[in-house]
Amino acid sequence: MSRTTKKLAAIASTTAAAALTLAVTATPAMAWTAGNFTATLNGTMVINAGIPAECTGSTLSGTIDANGNLTITSASVSGCGVTVTPNNLPWTGSLSNGVAKLNGFSMSAIGCTYGGNLTGSFSGSDLPVTATFANQKVNKTSGWLCPGSATVTAAYDFAAA
Q1: 3-state secondary structure of 11
Q2: pLDDT tens, 47-98?
Q3: Cα 160 to Cα 64: distance, rounded to the nearest angstrom
């Protein structure tokens, strides 16, 4: 092989190795399986606005995309001792790098409405996963003689629907 051919071969080899390294390091984290999901309450949900209300049932449903972004189009709550109504759907959120988020969360009970964003944790890289939200503060958005904020604690089992 001539000296020029050897140099060209070395340059081509180095370029190919660099391209492969770039492709391997630029590969995104494992993607979620996009589609519909249902999230079912695991245990009880506690909404505490001075007097804790324990709810025994709740379901969220909607879609998840390949990046873990959530659109929650349906929410229900039951077994609280009082009527609790989810508001302002759809909510958004995400499951990303162990952090679970529900944005635009809003619920009303006994004339008081509370809303905000919930941040929790989960482990796993595709459904099913359990997301846990502990003592998340939400502010009063309407109501008279209602405390200014409440806390929400809940865990949801997310599964493909």
Answers
A1: helix
A2: 999 888 899 999 999 999 999 999 999 999 999 999 999 999 999 999 999 9
A3: 9
What is the C-alpha to C-alpha distance for residues 140 and 118, in angstroms, rounded to an integer?
14
Contact 94, 62 (CB under 8 A): no
Distance CA 71, CA 160 (A): 14
How far is Cα of residue 115 from the mean position of the Cα atoms in its chain?
16
Give the distance from CA 150 to its chain's centroid. Answer: 20
Ranges assigned E (strand) in 8-79: 35-41, 45-48, 52-55, 57-64, 69-78
Cβ count within 10 A of residue 4? 8
- What pTM was computed for the model? 0.80
